[in-house]
Amino acid sequence: GELYLIGGEGEEEEEELSFERVFRELKGDGRTRYVGSKAIQGCIEARIGEFPDRIEDSHHRTTLYVPVGVAAVLKENPQLVSAAVLAFCNRDSIDLKACRAMRYFPPESCVYVSVVFTKCLYAMLLHNSYLPDRRTGWSLPLATDPNYKAHVLGVKLACGFEILASQAKTSQSLDTDKGWKSYFESLSSKGYFQENIEGSQEYTRLLGIAKEYYQENKDSMRFTPKIGEEIVSILKRNDYDPEELRKEGLDLPSPDDDSWINISPEELDQMLTKRYGVRTLLSLNGNAPSPESFTAMMSEFLDRKSEFDGVDQDAAAVAAAELVESFKPTKPKRTKSKSKADHVPNHNHVQPPPLHAPIDFDPDAFGST
After folding, report:
1. Helix, strand or coil for residue 303?
2. I need a labelling partner for 45 at 20 to 30 A (CA). Which of 59, 204, 207, 221 fits?
3. C-alpha span between 61 and 65 (Å, rounded)
């Protein structure tokens, strides 16, 4: 297949194109008139040609040590792992209180499970620092233990599920809705109620508008009560056997190697070049200096001496001008009178010398009179 770019002309550019017009435009010479360039077609083919093989390559399987409740939730709906990771990485002080309580997923009974993440989610969870409270019941092995990573990642994921479950709405009343409380406080701090007295007619009107807007849009906000309700409903059904989950944890597939998460600067450059192409530092007229000459000019500029009575403005200005002009396109020459060219430097604004520039110091200048 090929990509065709069809657009209107003049006032028709803002009008929506109908299928009939599109098919009509593509007849005859329209196929060659509107077809995308080879560069565009090649870019699209390179991106879509990686699929479906890249789908498996973008996943990462690892072993986690989690509470049995988390194992039961993942077994019924493994897609909830993404919401749990995002909830944990975006936690706030209210969420941390839920993590200290671990009301829904107590850590007393844990099992090993095999979890599939996207590589992005795995990297987010791995590099998000968190130290669990031992008073909650978490017991981590030594960092040298081969199961240390499974325990740490399990704690983080369990906390993510705990945050989601704590946001489940057991009542439709906004009085017990933490999301509404946070939203209301945000409105108040931003002056939404316009200094109206609480209970007044205008205050009540604005409050009603805010409540209506929140109830209509709360699912798109940070708080995810529906996901939390699904998690809580799985736990309430209690149709999972902890002993069976423990036995399943004894026969798990081997975790994937996560060495891909550590790359060298050269590998990063190759990835960026492959994705975005080669980018070179060139000025508009193509006369940009080489890295070696640029370094030499910088060293010469910084090594210029500053005199006892201050910076040599002429020398510093010339060096700075040379450095700046090397990155600017060549401009056409302009005729100037000789009197204007020989201007007197402005000493009212003296720039400080470079920190490491040598200073000529004459001790005889401080002789007593």
Report:
1. coil
2. 59
3. 14
